[in-house]
């Protein structure tokens, strides 16, 4: 037997093409690196010294092993955003939910298998605000020999959108926590780590038609020609005339929902959140933090240079970084100093653009990739989400901003909930998270006079393989706002959405139960609602939270506890021996 194994190994070395690698090894070293943006330099936390971090490539069905070693002063965890982690919740990554953080000088091996998934996802730190610079792309290719369900592109390009602060973001969030006030907004938006042209690093606006692109502007320039030559720290997408490219666009921003546009070019969406969609052609992508959109781009315009713009969406009174991130699409053989073709960006409060985009997405729902929407429901949940004000004796003005689900502001424990559940440790959490608000009110009308929330570390318990319908209702307490919400451990189907209060009698009649888009993160419209359905077929503890980091920090989060089913194949795996200790 030993000789036979050795013979197979010898043959595999001689004929590597016949052997498909099923285990992907990565080493993530968390280190500090100095970075210069917007004419200022600061130390940032990175993986392997890169911003954005290294791309993780694998195929559907592969086993991925990532050795994380922490060389910085902060505790660190990594979340593999959108990876289902079937029975491997120990590797999901949210600090104090599924694991204790990796402490300075320590390491941990993340071990998971990419089961039944293919497409674009992301990884990011999941403790404090470290994901500002600790993030990167996950590209899951189909199994070998399995084609895309759309025309094969000439090349693929990964585009990661982000935010940049001149200040240390850990200091930003710590100051906000101490004062009880909202944190300072970011100073720029980035495309693959680049904010775009920054002559003199001063700020002004460029008017283009009825819109304004907010970019750093040189007051000494008499026209827009500076964009022709100022390409320092700007991302450039190089294309060849007549070719089709697959763009894997990822919103890794911390607090901003973003529009993405390329001048004079349409995009055909074919996948979101690693789930194939029916082709949808548009000139504008809309992504909330944590969302991904994969789209085909045809290089069908004249040779030249075309502006790529990412701009924020905010349709309420909440402050937002309104600077536009700038990049370029450049055709091969474009001459130097060729004028740039500009693009009209959506207004910052362009709600109709977001609604059209969201409503146009449909699951592919083919024989090979069906939309298995739960048609019968075991748990019908109603979560109202928003912000509030709690008293704080040590805070500025004697109060602090908080956020809540069903009026419960989540309190992070000091022992990971999954560990407490697995080992039967009492006193870490309770399983009495409310299925609906204790006191119903007019959620999108005049807010109640009392805006204080209750605190708790509460989970909602689900039996294995039970089905869930969750209506997420935004409210207008303090200020209405769009909330991109993310569920760990499962995808879900977005069966409905609307503005105003959800009507339990009329609105379900309009649900799409045939081909609703499948996602892991969805934006709940400002003063509106979104309805999702999913099957709880993954035992473990799964975080559910707003993916605006400011709201997560304030407590807009909870967790689902999915019980084991029958036998080992329906039960969570035992914890790894190197699981970090708190």
UniProtKB/TrEMBL annotation:
<comment type="similarity">
    <text>Belongs to the multicopper oxidase family.</text>
</comment>
<dbReference type="InterPro" id="IPR033138">
    <property type="entry name" value="Cu_oxidase_CS"/>
</dbReference>
<dbReference type="InterPro" id="IPR045087">
    <property type="entry name" value="Cu-oxidase_fam"/>
</dbReference>
<keyword id="KW-0186">Copper</keyword>
<keyword id="KW-0439">Lignin degradation</keyword>
<dbReference type="Pfam" id="PF00394">
    <property type="entry name" value="Cu-oxidase"/>
</dbReference>
<keyword id="KW-0677">Repeat</keyword>
<keyword id="KW-0325">Glycoprotein</keyword>
<feature type="domain" description="Plastocyanin-like">
    <location>
        <begin position="433"/>
        <end position="565"/>
    </location>
</feature>
<feature type="signal peptide">
    <location>
        <begin position="1"/>
        <end position="21"/>
    </location>
</feature>
<dbReference type="InterPro" id="IPR034285">
    <property type="entry name" value="CuRO_2_LCC"/>
</dbReference>
<keyword id="KW-0052">Apoplast</keyword>
<dbReference type="InterPro" id="IPR001117">
    <property type="entry name" value="Cu-oxidase_2nd"/>
</dbReference>
<dbReference type="GO" id="GO:0046274">
    <property type="term" value="P:lignin catabolic process"/>
</dbReference>
<dbReference type="InterPro" id="IPR034288">
    <property type="entry name" value="CuRO_1_LCC"/>
</dbReference>
<protein>
    <recommendedName>
        <fullName>laccase</fullName>
        <ecNumber>1.10.3.2</ecNumber>
    </recommendedName>
</protein>
<dbReference type="InterPro" id="IPR011706">
    <property type="entry name" value="Cu-oxidase_C"/>
</dbReference>
<dbReference type="GO" id="GO:0005507">
    <property type="term" value="F:copper ion binding"/>
</dbReference>
<keyword id="KW-0964">Secreted</keyword>
<dbReference type="GO" id="GO:0052716">
    <property type="term" value="F:hydroquinone:oxygen oxidoreductase activity"/>
</dbReference>
<feature type="domain" description="Plastocyanin-like">
    <location>
        <begin position="32"/>
        <end position="144"/>
    </location>
</feature>
<keyword id="KW-0560">Oxidoreductase</keyword>
<keyword id="KW-0732">Signal</keyword>
<dbReference type="InterPro" id="IPR034289">
    <property type="entry name" value="CuRO_3_LCC"/>
</dbReference>
<dbReference type="InterPro" id="IPR002355">
    <property type="entry name" value="Cu_oxidase_Cu_BS"/>
</dbReference>
<dbReference type="Pfam" id="PF07731">
    <property type="entry name" value="Cu-oxidase_2"/>
</dbReference>
<keyword id="KW-0479">Metal-binding</keyword>
<dbReference type="InterPro" id="IPR008972">
    <property type="entry name" value="Cupredoxin"/>
</dbReference>
<dbReference type="GO" id="GO:0048046">
    <property type="term" value="C:apoplast"/>
</dbReference>
<dbReference type="InterPro" id="IPR011707">
    <property type="entry name" value="Cu-oxidase-like_N"/>
</dbReference>
<dbReference type="Pfam" id="PF07732">
    <property type="entry name" value="Cu-oxidase_3"/>
</dbReference>
<feature type="domain" description="Plastocyanin-like">
    <location>
        <begin position="156"/>
        <end position="333"/>
    </location>
</feature>
């Amino acid at each position: 037997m030993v000789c036979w194994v050795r013979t197979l190994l010898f043959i595999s070395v001689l004929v590597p093409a016949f052997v498909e690698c099923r285990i992907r090894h990565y080493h993530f070293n968390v280190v500090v690196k100095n970075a210069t943006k917007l004419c200022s330099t600061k130390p940032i936390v990175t993986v392997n010294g890169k911003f954005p971090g290294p791309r993780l490539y694998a195929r559907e069905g592969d086993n991925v092993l990532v050795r994380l070693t922490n060389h910085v002063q902060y505790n660190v965890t990594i979340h593999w955003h959108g990876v289902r982690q079937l029975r491997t919740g120990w590797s999901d990554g949210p600090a104090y939910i599924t694991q204790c953080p990796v402490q300075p000088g320590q390491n941990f091996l993340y071990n998971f298998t990419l089961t039944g998934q293919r497409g674009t996802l992301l990884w990011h730190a999941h403790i404090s605000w470290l994901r500002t610079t600790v993030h990167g792309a996950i590209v899951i290719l189909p199994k070998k020999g399995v084609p895309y369900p759309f025309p094969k592109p000439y090349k693929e390009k990964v585009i990661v959108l982000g935010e940049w602060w001149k200040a240390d973001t850990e200091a930003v969030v710590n100051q906000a926590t101490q004062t009880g006030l909202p944190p300072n907004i970011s100073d720029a938006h980035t495309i693959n780590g680049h904010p775009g042209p920054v002559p003199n690093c001063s700020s002004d606006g460029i008017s283009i038609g009825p819109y304004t692109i907010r970019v750093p502007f040189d007051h000494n320039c008499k026209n827009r020609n500076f964009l022709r030559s100022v390409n320092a720290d700007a991302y450039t997408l190089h294309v060849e005339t007549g070719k089709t490219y697959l763009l894997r666009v990822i919103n890794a921003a911390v607090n901003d929902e973003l529009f993405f546009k390329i001048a004079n070019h349409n995009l055909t969406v074919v996948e979101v959140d690693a789930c194939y969609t029916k082709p949808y052609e548009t000139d504008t992508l809309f992504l909330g933090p944590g969302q991904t959109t994969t789209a085909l781009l045809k290089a069908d315009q004249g040779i030249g240079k075309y502006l790529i713009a990412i701009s924020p969406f905010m349709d309420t009174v909440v402050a937002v970084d309104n600077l536009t991130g700038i990049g370029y699409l450049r055709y091969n053989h474009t001459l130097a100093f060729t004028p740039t073709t500009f693009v009209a960006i959506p207004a910052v409060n362009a709600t109709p653009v977001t609604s059209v985009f969201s409503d146009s997405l449909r699951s592919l729902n083919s024989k090979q990739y069906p939309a298995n929407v739960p048609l019968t429901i075991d748990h019908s949940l109603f979560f109202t989400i928003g912000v509030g004000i709690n008293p704080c004796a040590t805070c500025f003005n004697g109060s602090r901003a908080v956020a809540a689900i069903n009026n419960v502001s989540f309190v992070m424990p000091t022992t990971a909930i999954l560990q407490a559940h697995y080992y039967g440790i009492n006193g870490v959490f309770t399983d009495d998270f409310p299925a609906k608000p204790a006191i119903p009110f007019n959620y999108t009308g005049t807010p109640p006079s009392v805006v204080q929330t209750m605190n708790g570390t509460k989970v909602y318990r689900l039996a294995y393989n039970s089905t869930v319908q969750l209506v997420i209702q935004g409210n207008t307490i303090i200020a209405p706002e769009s909330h991109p919400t993310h569920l760990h451990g499962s995808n879900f189907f977005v069966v409905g959405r609307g503005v105003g209060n959800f009507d339990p009698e009329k609105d379900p009649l309009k649900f799409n139960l045939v081909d609703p888009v499948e996602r892991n993160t969805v934006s709940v419209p400002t003063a509106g609602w979104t309805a999702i359905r999913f099957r709880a077929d993954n035992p473990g503890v799964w975080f559910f939270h707003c993916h605006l980091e400011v709201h997560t920090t304030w407590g807009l989060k909870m967790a689902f506890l999915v019980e084991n089913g029958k036998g080992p194949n329906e039960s969570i795996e035992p914890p790894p021996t190197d699981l970090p200790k708190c």
